[in-house]
Amino acid sequence: MILRWLLPGLALITPAQAERYEFWLNRFGCIRLDTAAAAPKIEFEQGNKQGEEIVWQADLTAVDKSTFKTKAGTTFKLVKLEKPVVNDENRHINSGDWQIEITGKGKEYQLVRDKLPFVAFGDSNKPIFFGEEVKK
């Protein structure tokens, strides 16, 4: 595991064994990032009490161990935080010790922004969200 300090209190840690990260933005909506070396992918899921639906997904290419890109250039960057951000203690919505930042430009990036599940807690109006590593 490699630790690189970006700012005081913010460190970038190269993911060692995790293959899935979830960033819950509301009770039924999340960003799910699978980082498996063979086939990294991203999914945006939104649902309700009756079920959920994948509203956007894309295959990714690893730029390095914490940055992933779509073919059109939209980038998803993972950052391990020194301590968790807690916007919702009960359901852990937009909370956790991992951050994902989405960057890009053009049509795909605008589509990605339009398809993001709504943020119930801690919306910063920036494409930066907090979540957790999913243990398998």
List keywords for this structure.
136 residues; mainly beta; nine-stranded antiparallel sheet; two-stranded antiparallel sheet; 11 strands
Molecular structure report:
The structure is a single chain. The chain has 136 residues and is mostly beta strands. It has one domain (22-46, 53-133). The protein contains one helix and eleven strands, in the order ββββββββββαβ. It has one helix at 106-115; strands at 3-7, 10-13, 20-26, 29-34, 41-48, 51-59, 61-64, 67-69, 75-85, 96-103, 128-133. A nine-stranded antiparallel sheet has the order 6-5-4-3-11-10-9-8-7, with helices on one face. A two-stranded antiparallel sheet has the order 1-2. Strand 5 and strand 6 (51-59) form a beta hairpin. It is globular. The two termini are 19 Å apart.
Oligomer: single chain
Question: What is the arithmetic mean of pLDDT?
Answer: 87
Strand content: over 45%
- Number of separate structural domains: 1
Secondary-structure element series: EEEEEEEEEEHE
The strands making up the biggest β-sheet line up spatially as 6-5-4-3-11-10-9-8-7
Radius of gyration: 14 Å
Q: Using the alpha-carbon principal axes, give the shape.
A: globular
Cα end-to-end separation: 19 Å
Uncertain segments are 1-5
**SS-based structural class?**
mainly beta
Number of distinct beta strands: 11
Number of contiguous helices = 1
Give a short account of the largest sheet: 9 strands, antiparallel
**Helical residue percent band:** under 10%
